[in-house]
Amino acid sequence: MDAILREQDVSASVDRETGVSRFAGSPMPIDATGFQAGDDALATLACSITGARRKLADHLEASLFANPGLDIMLFLFAEGLNGATVTTNACCAAAGVPRTTALRWIKLLQDRGLVLGSDDVSDRRVTMLALSQTGRSTIRAWLTEIAAIPLQRADPQDR
Fold first, then answer.
1. Residue 23 to residues 47, 51, 64, 127, 128: CA-CA distances in angstroms?
2. How far is CA 21 from CA 38, 120, 136, in A?
3. Does the chain have fewer CB atoms within 10 Å around its N or its C terminus?
4. How many CB atoms are located within 10 Å of the residue 54 CB?
5. In DSSP terms, which residues pair with 12 in a beta bridge?
6. Cβ atoms within 10 A of the Cβ of 6, count?
């Protein structure tokens, strides 16, 4: 998988003032480039969704509800605000599945153009990941739709 990542035309740099890694060419100010002002609130919602999904394991077998692709994308959305990148190891841990399974999902998300990967500028053995603009806008749209759903009891007529 590393060979595939290295062939991509994606490089990262570290902002010396903030210490945040950013992909070269990745838009940084909050504008039409991929990061928007409401992303902080949506990142909180993403973390809440992930936490709620983890709580299922307290009551039911976790493997019944495993969705590594969603877990990885939510993690990258929440952790990748303002262009920050995340290590592959952190994404594997966030997926809550065996490492090999998480790596397959990361590759699938990369192949679909939802996740970008590049070598860490300080350690080429480490691969850094971030949502692509398509991945970020897709998760943003989904979280925005969820945030707009009012919390209410289901109407018996809807059943």
1. 23, 28, 35, 12, 9
2. 21, 9, 17
3. C
4. 13
5. 23
6. 13
d(CA 143, CA 157): 27
Is residue 157's pLDDT more than 50? yes
Beta strands in the chain (DSSP E): 12-14, 21-23, 86-87, 115-119, 127-131
Q: Do the beta carbons of residue 42 and residue 77 sit within 8 Å?
A: yes
Q: Per the structure block, which two tokens stand in for 37? A: 């002002």
Whole-model pTM: value is: 0.72
Residue with tokens 């949506």: 42
Distance CA 136, CA 144 (A): 12
